[in-house]
Amino acid sequence: MDAAFTAEQHEIRRTLRELLARSAGPDAIPAAVRTAEGYDPVLWRRLAGDLGLPGLALAAEYGGAGCTVTELALACEETGRALLPTPLLATAALAAPLIAALGTPDQRAALLPRIADGTLTAALAVAGGSLATALGLTGDNLDGAWAGGGRAGGIQARGPGEDGDRRLYGEADRVLDGHSAGLLLVAAHAGGYPRSRTQLFLVPGDAAGLARTRLTSVDETRPLARVELRDTPAELLGADGTADAAAALAAAGRTAAAILAAEAVGTAASALERTVEYVKAREQFGRAVGSFQAVKHRLADLYVRVEAARSAAYHAARDPEAGPLALAQALEAARITTGEAVQLHGGIGFTWEHEAHRYLKRAAGDELLFGPVHRLRDHAARRAGLFGPAAASRPPVGIAYGAGV
Q1: pLDDT value at position 1?
Q2: How many folded domains does the chain comprise?
Q3: Could you tell me the CA-to-CA distances from 335 to 15, 131, 315 in Å, in that order?
Q4: Is residue 395 part of a domain?
Q5: In sequence order, which ranges of 64-179 are alpha helices (DSSP H)?
Q6: pLDDT digits over 298-341, tens only?
Q7: Where residue 28 sits, what CATH number does that domain have?
Q8: Which of 101, 116, 131 marks a domain boundary?
């Protein structure tokens, strides 16, 4: 694989790293996560307006930069290094490709330019807190069981009524950035139980009958919410409901996995770099801790693990079909590296407020939300037919971020 990046891609990485070094240091994280939005809205406007991060992978006709998933993955690698609280992942990696793939021309024209310029953030809400399964990462999402199966539970859609709107009823837990998003993409069952199938609906953040509660999460920089819908008006995403929402979710999931893998690599790499600097400065028995052979061996093993995950993430950014496996490797590298970082920081590393713990909580929270690792690998192996004939595949759904789908 040719892992070389273009000058433009290197410039995206350099510019973003410099900006985050100035504006998003460790001391800025506690203040950002305690805002009503869960992130720094001033910094978000700079990231969106000056650097155009939400529109990196959106087509130029919708105000985007017309770049590829690779550019967005590189940007997320840098936000992962800084543990930046931001709606970028929920908006640009999850919601935008679904709107681009399934939305009508009017829906894309109305929503994607606002996503590209950062004035609209979005979140994907699925029932049961089963985001990884809904995206086809840890299990088959075709039967709709993850969304309640059309029976009790889940989210149900009724209508359309006289006003043309559908009405949604139900609840979704662990919705990433769901408490502050200006737009919710809600997966709901429509058609009643005998003919039920999962479809996606657009719900404005200020819709009647919508209640959102921010939840306590392992990682404060990944705000989660409970979304309750009580006779909430919603608009069907797409023209007539014939679009294959499950296949679109699975395709978006593979792309999101590649992006998230790059972000997890950034988290692991930054934790390792900070640990190396610490053991070079911390002295014990009259010499630097990092000079002991056992510490060197541990750090060398971590370096190899992080670089292997980085190679997998870069490959997946170019070929999202490899996204789930790259995500498994990156999440595992992040978990092991951040755990070792706490250990190698000694007593201070076990202080809850220390930055080493923030990296550990990011790694743990991401695996809870998008993993676990062994299920990511198991499902990827089953899709590849390693345990028997591969599951019947469907025609791929275009996730071209607005490019004529």
Answers
A1: 45
A2: 3
A3: 28, 20, 21
A4: no
A5: 69-81, 88, 96-102, 105-116, 131-134
A6: 999 999 999 999 999 999 999 999 999 999 999 999 999 999 99
A7: 1.10.540.10
A8: 116
Q: How far apart are CA 402 and CA 60, in angstroms?
A: 9
In terms of domains, do 96 and 197 share one? no
Whether residue 240 is contained in a domain is answered as yes
CATH of the domain at 320: 1.20.140.10
Q: Indicate whether 372 and 259 sit together in one domain.
A: yes
Residue 34 burial (CB count, 10 A): 10
Query: Considering the chain, what is the average pLDDT of its residues?
Result: 89
What is the distance of C-alpha 336 from the center of its chain? Answer: 20
Highest mean pLDDT among 218-222, 292-296, 302-306: 302-306
pLDDT of residue 193: 58
297 occurs within a structural domain = yes
Distance CA 84, CA 373 (A): 23
Amino acid identity, position 194: P
Q: At what angle do helices 323-344 and 355-370 cross, to 10 degrees?
A: 150
Q: What gap in Å lies between CA 184 and CA 191, rounded to an integer?
A: 21
Give me Rg for the CA atoms of the chain. 21
Question: Going by DSSP bridges, is the β-strand pair 224-236/210-215 parallel, antiparallel, or unpaired?
Answer: antiparallel
Residues 6+ apart with CB under 8 A from 13: 5, 74, 75, 77, 78
Q: Would you state the pLDDT for residue 319?
A: 95
Give the pLDDT band (50/70/90) at residue 401: very low
Please tell me the pTM assigned to this model: 0.91
Give yes or no for a contact between 398 and 357, defined as CB atoms under 8 angstroms apart: no
> Is the per-residue pLDDT at 294 higher than 80?
yes
At residue 300, the pLDDT reads 97
Q: Are strands 166-176 and 122-125 parallel, antiparallel or unpaired?
A: unpaired
- Fill in the amino acid letter for 273: E
- Does residue 398 fall inside a structural domain? no
Full DSSP string of 356-368: HHHHHHHHHHHHH
| Number of alpha carbons in the 13 Å side-chain half-sphere of residue 174 | 15
| Full domain range(s) for residue 91 | 7-116
CATH code of residue 207: 2.40.110.10
